[in-house]
Design a protein that fits this description.
4-stranded parallel β-sheet
Length: 141
């Protein structure tokens, strides 16, 4: 298995390239996070909490999430935990995340608490993760 730090760095680079192609302002806090070491080198955890002091003024928008999901798609098989709580994610962004999570074979936890997800987005997400038998923690409220 590839080392998670290498994978995160590849996702960071692809995210930066996606932002440049789409002419979207780069979320520097997200890039910083993606270049930080992970405590578990065998699991890819995507944890970017909008209420964290380093992220509060750089919360994930739908644009950020769409470009990040596109960058992370080739590495979906390594993802174990996703926590994008307290960001600015709406149904628009959640559709991209749902498609990415549909590719994740061993999703163990998902936290989207404190976002702007409505019923349609929650349904779309549910359709993509309903077969995740390892999912033991799901937080949406």
């Amino acid at each position: 298995m590839s080392h998670v730090l290498d994978i995160k760095a590849k996702i960071a680079k692809a995210y930066e390239e996606n932002c440049a192609k789409a002419e979207v302002t780069l979320n520097k806090a997200l890039v910083r996070y993606l270049n930080e070491p992970e405590p578990d080198p065998e699991r890819l955890n995507l944890i970017f909490r909008g209420n964290h002091k380093l992220n509060f003024s750089s919360r994930l928008s739908d644009e950020d999430l769409i470009l990040l999901c596109s960058a992370a798609e080739p590495f979906a098989k390594h993802i174990s935990h996703v926590d994008f709580s307290y960001n600015l994610i709406t149904d628009t962004g959640i559709n991209s995340l749902g498609r990415l999570l549909g590719l994740v074979p061993r999703l163990e936890s998902l936290n989207l608490q404190g976002n702007l997800i409505e019923i349609d987005g929650a349904k779309e997400l549910a359709d993509n993760i309903k077969k995740k038998t390892l999912l033991s923690i799901l937080t949406l409220t």
